[in-house]
Amino acid sequence: MSKKEDKTQNENKEVKDQVEEVIDNAIDEVEENSESTEESENTNESELSEEEKLKEEVQKEKDKFLRLFAEFENYKRRTSKERLELFKTANQEVMTAMLPVMDDFDRALNELKKSGDENLLTGIELIHNKLKETLKAKGLERMEVEQGEDFDSEIHEAITQMPAPSDKLKGKIVDVVEPGYKLGERIIRYPKVVTGK
């Protein structure tokens, strides 16, 4: 738990304690008033009604404080949830800018595998893996899409259609042109695919 959250919780506890203390003091005052009126033998109905009015007033104030406190708790919960969402997606612009770099690394690795230079390939793979793991630690996740999967317009972007190489691939994904990425639960780039017809 962060220092800010601890501080916020302590402040909330202090506010709650103060509200409860005010309510307790008001109840004590009403009880003292009721005891003093009971002790006096010359109580009349106007004093009793006044005591009842005070009790009602205290109850109204108590309800008011409880509602305010509940409203404040709801506000605090809502704003902390919004803040967490903001932190999760705050780096979306930076991540989107890094996606072409990831694509270039993938292309470079494919070409190096064809060249056969093992030392160069190992070095580039190390850098590529480090970049990929760093972005993954920040919430970036590659969407795994494979040939033969059903096309879903909610999560895939079809860039073209081509005749399916087999009947099994009709209406399905034939090729993935560009991988898609998610940042947390939000898709920041849809995978570009070719579908079979």
UniProtKB/TrEMBL annotation:
Assembly and oligomerization: Homodimer.
Source superkingdom: Bacteria
Name the UniProt record assigns to this protein: Protein GrpE
Entries under InterPro entries matching the protein: GrpE (IPR000740), GrpE_CC (IPR013805), GrpE_head (IPR009012)
BP GO terms, sorted: protein folding
Region Disordered, annotated ranges: 1-56
Biased amino acid composition, Basic and acidic residues: 1-19
GO MF, one example: adenyl-nucleotide exchange factor activity
Biased composition (Acidic residues): 20-50
Alphabetical keyword list: Chaperone, Cytoplasm, Stress response
GO CC, alphabetical: cytoplasm
Organism (species): Christiangramia salexigens
Subcellular compartments: Cytoplasm
Function: Participates actively in the response to hyperosmotic and heat shock by preventing the aggregation of stress-denatured proteins, in association with DnaK and GrpE. It is the nucleotide exchange factor for DnaK and may function as a thermosensor. Unfolded proteins bind initially to DnaJ; upon interaction with the DnaJ-bound protein, DnaK hydrolyzes its bound ATP, resulting in the formation of a stable complex. GrpE releases ADP from DnaK; ATP binding to DnaK triggers the release of the substrate protein, thus completing the reaction cycle.
The keyword GTP-binding is annotated on this UniProt entry: no
Family according to the record: Belongs to the GrpE family.
